[in-house]
Write a structure and sequence with these properties.
It is a single chain. With 212 residues, the protein is α+β, with helices and mostly antiparallel strands. The chain folds into 3 domains: 5-70; 93-141, no CATH class; 148-204, no CATH class. It is built from 8 helices and 10 strands. A 5-stranded mixed β-sheet has the order 6-7-10-9-8. β8 and β9 (183-187) form a beta hairpin. The chain starts with a helix and ends in an 8-residue tail after the last helix. Bound molecules: zinc ion.
Length: 212
């Protein structure tokens, strides 16, 4: 691969625009990275290889190069929701629930058209919500709820998506990126997801093509 200067220029611009805290997290500084010819050449090579050999888009490749050369961003200890939509990050779903409520009963012994104090006030017992659950933001359907799980791989930290047809990823613009420690990482340019090779093989057999 012949290194082309335009990739180095892109990389330098990307580094200059990154927040200083991104470097602090990785135990370095922006200045030290830009001043190190060795580091910049490594970043340049990974970035160009991602774009030219793996057909990844520019934004993803820039981030990927930074994670590979400077180290992946440490997983932040944050209080996360137990479930979230791996496609859009939403933590709200539309599910189903059986509820018991006090109702007005008319002279005919049947339910009358209203509930005393409105639905919420009238409920006295309810079961646990059940699926199928629909993401209230992007409309993807799940059953059970998708767990909020991440996996830290050599190339970065990714949300795990499981139990969904990989075709769903394709229709969302995700394309096959690479295999990494038992996972296949898919990216659509703005988000990247990890599908375990077991889940991937369930839909595709052992047949792996470059694009989904
Ligand atoms: Zn969603």
């Amino acid at each position: 691969m012949i290194l082309r200067n335009e990739y180095l220029e892109d990389m330098e611009e990307y580094i200059r625009n990154m927040d200083e805290s991104e470097f602090a997290k990785r135990g370095t500084t922006k200045e030290a990275v830009l001043d190190s010819r060795d580091t910049m050449e490594k970043l340049w090579a990974v970035y160009q290889k991602d774009v030219e050999d793996y057909n990844c888009d520019e934004q993803f490749s820039l981030e990927d190069a930074v994670n590979e050369v400077l180290g992946a961003k440490p997983v932040q200890k944050k209080i996360c929701a137990k479930y979230h939509c791996p496609f859009c990050g939403s933590e709200r779903f539309i599910g189903h629930q059986e509820i018991r409520a006090e109702v007005y009963v008319g002279g005919d012994g049947e339910f009358e058209d209203n509930l005393p104090g409105g639905l919420e006030a009238a409920i006295y017992d309810s079961s646990h919500p059940y699926g199928p659950f629909t993401c209230s933001k992007c409309g993807k359907e799940y059953d059970p709820l998708p767990e909020n799980k991440e996996v830290r791989l050599p190339r970065g930290t990714f949300y795990i998506v499981s139990g969904v047809n990989v075709q769903m990823c394709k229709s969302d613009g995700y394309s096959y990126h690479h295999e990494d420690d038992g996972y296949t990482v898919l990216s659509n340019g703005t988000r990247a997801l990890a599908v375990s090779n077991e889940d991937y093989n369930r839909y595709y057999g052992d047949q792996r093509s470059f694009m989904l």
